[in-house]
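Typical record was shown:
=====
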Amino acid sequence: MRDVTAAETLCLLLDKRRGESALRLLRELQLLDTSFRIGRDGNRLIVPLMRSPSERERSALEVELGDLQVSTGTLTRVTRKPRTITEALKGLLTPNQLASLPRSIDIVGEIAIIELPEELREFESPIGRAILETNRNLRTVLAKAGPVSTEKRIRHFDMIAGADSTETTHREYGCLFRVDVAKVYFSPRLSFEHERVARQVRENETVVDMFAGVGPFAIHIAKRRRNVRVYAIDMNEDAIRCLRDNVLLNNVDDKVVVLRGDARTVIQKNLAAKSDRVVMNHPSRAAEYVEAASMAIKPEGGVIHYYTFGADPNPLEKAKEHLSEMLQRVQRRLDNVLYSRIVRGTAPHEWLCVLDALVR
């Protein structure tokens, strides 16, 4: 959207029949002021100029247009909507404060989630409004107000702009997810991982998703494969509610079995030795559940997608050594690491890591 106001500016007056040639030449000479609209006065155009032409520029214009009439006039100024948050906040924040603005924003459906440094907390409302102004598809801006809890993996937020709602529908690789970001764990930064793991699953596999959340791993897998069985487990009742909705929303209710409870208990009672593949996306607690994952894997072995936090130096090598040690304690063997990578940074010198581990 653009606001328009009138203002006096330097202008070139010329016959409208020469308008096309004049505009072309003025652009070449970088004299045309595009912050104003071109005006009309009868058969004449009133063309806004950035500055008065130099003698050389005036000579070039006269060759093309004849005698020039440079004057001042009142034209309509066009103020364009800012394209970035930084542009929208210029004049309100100092250069140092602008440099402290978050460089990344998590977008979940129509909700933006940001992490503000303490020095910008007093400006959270205008920052939130700037995000909405420069992103038409958003309706709510939330600021992180604490760490992710260990048990249910939920985070507290402050609503700083837009609609007071934490529920939305998020689209990812053709899948839809209903999410309440204040009640369940969901990270759009893991979209590549959701799809990457799903691509590895073969037809007729049985998969256990130990910490399913709203179902991104389980539903990606079920949408990609015709004959597959995914057991999606979570202990958060709000996540289970969203998960059941998402299974129906994505038409995979014949492939995904939703189970509420602690993954250790559910596997011990119902899923021991049934799985070809286990997804362990709970990096702060995955190590506690390695024994349960091993119990779920079939006796002949399978793959565990193991997510954990690691610190420099060599976080992937440390994760591999730790997983191997834990598997040995439960009479399993880390046969091979099929794939490993640092997914993203979580703190200075700390990383979210993933290992695709072939377990025998």
User: Anything to note?
Assistant: The chain has three domains: 3-79, 85-165, 184-359. The two ends are 61 Å apart (CA to CA). DSSP finds eleven helices and 17 strands in the chain. The mean pLDDT is 93.
